[in-house]
């Protein structure tokens, strides 16, 4: 029960496919007490998903691209518990124009929305943790998609993830003074609602089939959830500013190891 006594704020649950949902379930199984926050438009779905967790947690509606909502969320969590030991950032959104089409033609206003929601909101959550942390040992965890290079798809969301990686390093720098950790998990591709909004997402799945040394199941977000629980726990007490890859080892390979099953089948025709 590595999370016994930990009070965690979990953002980003919209249904039981959400990586945040798997993390919430695992965290409860490992002893944590939870409060969820949900994007107001997704609140009804989040409530439905929350009812299927081992213990139904309270849910607070918050649009984390809004400073006012972030401040209200901080106030609500303070009213509920007074203190907070950890938070999961599982939030991303980009208008379609930022996810596909001519990269350099994406409207700047759409990029602002993507950047604010997917990268700047991590700093908002960091402020909540800083303000409510009971002392050294609190932990902020975010979800990344490896931004070391350009993907064949993903466009400006890749840029937002590169920004998120940088934001994480600065948050780790500043919160480290208070003994608070900040880390990201770079997950492999997983079937979620957010993923279904990425045009040509199947190209990423094919890439994983060809290159990941470990078998990668895009229907299973629990390996990511388990890593998040490790990062919330005291077992990770000396880790901060890190990007932990939970991707079957994809990132460590220099190229494809085998022909992807789907591509091979297509080539047979
Ligand atoms: N699915 C993947 O393949 C994959 C891989 C690596 C990283 N990630 C990351 O995991 C995180 C969670 O995504 P997911 O794949 O579980 O999808 P998901 O659709 O289940 O979760 C995305 C969440 O973001 C929330 N959200 C969007 N805009 C918001 C806002 N302004 N304020 C508050 N919440 C907002 C949505 O309500 C939703 O709950 C994202 O950061 C995503 O980029 C996903």
Give me the oligomer status: single chain
CATH class: Alpha Beta
Could you spell the SSE succession in H and E letters?
A: EHEHEHEHHEHEHHHEH
Distance between the termini: 52 Å
Largest sheet geometry: 7 strands, parallel
Give the strand tally: 7
Which CATH architecture would you pick?
A: 3-Layer(aba) Sandwich
Overall pLDDT: 96
What is the fourth-level CATH superfamily?
NAD(P)-binding Rossmann-like Domain
Structural class: alpha/beta
Pathway: Lipid metabolism
Keywords: Fatty acid biosynthesis, Fatty acid metabolism, Lipid biosynthesis, Lipid metabolism, Oxidoreductase
GO biological process, one term: fatty acid biosynthetic process
InterPro entries: Enoyl-ACP_Rdtase_NADH, NAD(P)-bd_dom_sf, SDR_fam
In short:
The chain has helices at residues 19-29, 43-50, 67-80, 96-99, 108-132, 155-175, 193-196, 201-211, 222-232, 261-268, and strands at 7-11, 33-38, 59-61, 86-89, 139-144, 181-187, 243-246. By secondary structure, the chain is of the alpha/beta class.
Structure description:
With 269 residues, the protein is α/β, with parallel strands linked by helices. It has one domain (7-263): Rossmann fold (3-Layer(aba) Sandwich). The protein has ten helices and seven strands. It has helices spanning 19-29, 43-50, 67-80, 96-99, 108-132, 155-175, 193-196, 201-211, 222-232, 261-268, and strands at residues 7-11, 33-38, 59-61, 86-89, 139-144, 181-187, 243-246. It has a seven-stranded parallel β-sheet with strand order 3-2-1-4-5-6-7, sandwiched between helices. Helix 1 (19-29) packs across helix 9 (222-232) and helix 3 runs parallel beside helix 5 (108-132). It starts with 6 loop residues before the first strand and ends with a helix. Residues 264-269 have low confidence and may be disordered. Nicotinamide-adenine-dinucleotide binds next to helix 1, strand 5 and helix 7. One of its GO terms (molecular function) is enoyl-[acyl-carrier-protein] reductase (NADH) activity. Keywords: Fatty acid biosynthesis, Fatty acid metabolism, Lipid biosynthesis, Lipid metabolism, Oxidoreductase. Belongs to the short-chain dehydrogenases/reductases (SDR) family. FabI subfamily. InterPro entries: Enoyl-ACP_Rdtase_NADH (IPR014358), NAD(P)-bd_dom_sf (IPR036291), SDR_fam (IPR002347). Pathway: Lipid metabolism.
